[in-house]
Amino acid sequence: MSFPYTRLSSLTFVRCAFAHSVATVGYRYELKNEGWGIYGKAPRDGGLLEIGFVEQNPILLTGEKGERFRIGENCIFIIPPDSRFSVQCENEGLHRHTTAEFLVRCHTKAQKEYLPPAGRSLTLPLVIEPSPLSGEVFDRIRAIATAKAGGLERSFFEDCGDFMHLIHSLSRLAEPSSTGTGQSPGARRHCERAKAFISEHIDRHLTVSDVAEAVGVSKNYLTNVFSATEGVPLMEYINRRKLSHMVELIRRYDYSLSQAGEQVGFSDTNYVSRMFRRYYGMTFTQFKQQRLRRSEAEKNK
Questions:
Q1: Structural domain boundaries enclosing 235
Q2: Which residue in 180, 249, 251, 253 has its CB near the most CB atoms, within 10 A?
Q3: What is the pLDDT of residues 61-91, one digit of tens each?
């Protein structure tokens, strides 16, 4: 399926207005993001840019002229300013997605084909299909949503940095002639073997040398091709996977930070605490307080 493109010219970040993870049954609504919507009066070139991804149960978008687009699972969607769609789930049952809404200033123009970035202008499609680099976008949007859900105060520069990283990643993924990697099949195969080894040994203390030895290549080679193919340094990928597994353990078994850390091979609680704050935008204590508030809210329903 081909998706329409939008050219965003003179793109300027204003602020992150909202971000959240949705898990609901029978998801349906009318999307009209004119100006800054409920977030205040926008300047003439002001608009709302929404970036998210579907985790479960695809979304169907229907435009004003009856055109329909499908956002599948693990697809990234980019809703440009001044868009109007009727939104509904493709199937009955639970639907999950995570999204962030940014107030921006830019000029938009519909495009039939991709144009490369130039200055503060870039072309983005409505939907980006899954690729090896998608995980980087997922992680950053999740971190933004987690911070917003926890009510954590973040500086303009932190939000702007997240936005710029997202835009950079989306710009790479949007290139229609690229898989987002530019690497050979052999390099991609080595990266997949590395990720599989990390998943299978998530409970161990892992180094880049450990992974390279398991894959059967040199440390320098794997470091270079993994960063180029996946868009994230190998050691950072290891840390992200471990932190993601830790959060799942904390949610499922109510582990402490040190208990969860031990399950993924981390022995230094201070190190884990710093990483948690870096990747999730809040301290572990703030994360636990957020979970407690949600639990109490559910009991009071």
A1: 187-291
A2: 180
A3: 998 888 899 998 889 999 999 899 999 998 8
In a domain? residue 44: yes
Could you tell me the pLDDT band of residue 179, with boundaries at 50, 70 and 90? Answer: very low
Last residue of a domain, one of 174, 197, 231: 174
Write down the pLDDT at residue 181: 45
pTM given for the model:
0.61
* Domain count within the chain: 2
DSSP string, the chain: ----EEEEEEEEEEEEEEEEEEEEES-EEEEE--TTGGG-PPPTTEEEEEEEEEEES-EEEE-TTS-EEEE-TT-EEEE-TT-EEEEEESSSSEEEEEEEEEEEEEEEEEESS----BTTBEEEESEE---TTHHHHHHHHHHHHHHHHTT----HHHHHHHHHHHHHHHHHHH-TT--S----HHHHHHHHHHHHHHHHTTTS---HHHHHHHHTS-HHHHHHHHHHHHSS-HHHHHHHHHHHHHHHHHHHH---HHHHHHHTT---HHHHHHHHHHHHSS-HHHHHHHHHHHHHHHHT-
In this structure, is residue 300 part of a structural domain? no
Query: Mean pLDDT across the stretch 165-188?
Result: 70
